[in-house]
Amino acid sequence: MTYTEVPGARVPIRMWTDPAAVEGSAMQQLRNVSSLPWIAGLAVMPDVHYGKGATVGSVIAMRGAVCPAAVGVDIGCGMSAVKTSLRADDLPGDLSRLRGRIEQAIPVGRGLHDTPVDPSGFHGLPTAGWDDFWTRFQGLAQPVHFREERAAKQLGTLGSGNHFVEVCLDTEDTVWLMLHSGSRNIGKELAEHHIGEAQKLPHNQGLVDRDLAVFIADTPQMAAYRNDLFWAQEYAKHNRALMMALLKDVVRREFKKAKPAFEPEISCHHNYVAEERYEGVDLLVTRKGAIRAGAGDFGIIPGSMGTASYIVRGLGNTAAFNSASHGAGRKMSRNAAKKRFSARDLEEQTRGVECRKDSGVVDEIPGAYKPIEKVMDQQRDLVEVVAKLKQVVCVKG
């Protein structure tokens, strides 16, 4: 579909979905964002739904300003995927051992490694700049300095919620590895610190929603936030790279006879800020629940723990600020999903997938998400499909 324009306060709201199907609370958030004095454009992806601060599935372009709550507390959250040389026939009938090995190698939930993982121990994992990255930790906001050891031990860990590690098959029965995670607790604490700082600033006192407080260019507060933001985005990228290295090691050990090989990694943020230029104007583009889909850019759009996911290539649609959806998008809150569905429902909806099927992850049931096929159909002018994947193993926190 092509987008529909809905009137906004200062800029039109471009929507790659039916505006009538968007919940009222999310539409109000979009209108609130469109009222900001610094707004240059607002694009809404088909996975749009209500979020804290700003709508998930929105792309917010601003002139000389950035809203930390619109980035969210999981700075740099995103996806990574790798195509392997393994085939479906290489996989055992019982995948529980493989799932167990993955869970042993990659801590989940609030877990962390006993000692920081040394990236130099993995073949093919780039380590250039690693020491410099950690040296910069002491340049972050002072309130997080005591978290350095924890941050180091959480690098290469999954987290919880909608984060996952999966083994998938494409339509030609080739095995893929895929994972979803972000900047862990250190990103959350940095985000919360800066959101609080932004809300204290005089220019934010008259906003329609205090969660839309912004930092303005050429101020000390903006400089401090950008420093911490870009460090956290780098942390998230390192976190996924290290997890993928750990996952590859598991696969090498478990399928030693098959001698698995791995193609180059595809990786993309979907909660982040980028400096981009449109129509000759330099903008700060915040993608909250959206990926960059510039012409030729590879991206990953997952469904849920029981449905398809897609490897895509961007078409470079500037009306959407070169963006696309980050997934299927929730159609109900976590609390609503827990009330509506049971562990038995989860077992039925994830039939054929080796995964947790207990009440602790019922809020991640496929029925709580929008149909991924419809979401993909609504963004045919944003991306083209390169591969369609279906998980056979899914590890949740």
Give your account of this protein's structure.
There is one protein chain. The protein is of the alpha+beta class. The protein has helices at 24-34, 68-71, 96-105, 130-135, 148-154, 184-200, 220-254, 334-340, 343-349, 372-377; strands at residues 4-6, 13-15, 39-49, 56-62, 65-66, 78-87, 164-170, 174-181, 215-216, 266-269, 271-278, 281-288, 290-292, 298-301, 308-314, 323-325, 354-355, 383-396. The strands form four sheets. Strands 6, 7, 8, 10, 14, 15, 17 and 18 form an eight-stranded mixed beta sheet that branches. A six-stranded mixed beta sheet has the order 1-2-3-4-12-11, covered by helices on one side. It has a two-stranded antiparallel ribbon with strand order 5-9. Helix 3 (96-105) packs across helix 7 and helix 6 runs antiparallel to helix 7 (220-254). The longest helix has 35 residues, at 220-254. The chain starts with a strand and ends with a strand.
Properties at a glance:
six-stranded mixed sheet, single chain, eight-stranded mixed sheet, alpha+beta, 28% helix, 397 residues
Write the layout of secondary structure elements.
Blueprint: E1 4-6, E2 13-15, H1 24-34, E3 39-49, E4 56-62, E5 65-66, H2 68-71, E6 78-87, H3 96-105, H4 130-135, H5 148-154, E7 164-170, E8 174-181, H6 184-200, E9 215-216, H7 220-254, E10 266-269, E11 271-278, E12 281-288, E13 290-292, E14 298-301, E15 308-314, E16 323-325, H8 334-340, H9 343-349, E17 354-355, H10 372-377, E18 383-396
Parallel strand pairs: 2-3, 17-18
Antiparallel strand pairs: 1-2, 3-4, 4-12, 5-9, 6-8, 6-10, 7-8, 7-18, 11-12, 13-16, 14-15, 15-18
Helix pairs in contact: 3-7, 6-7
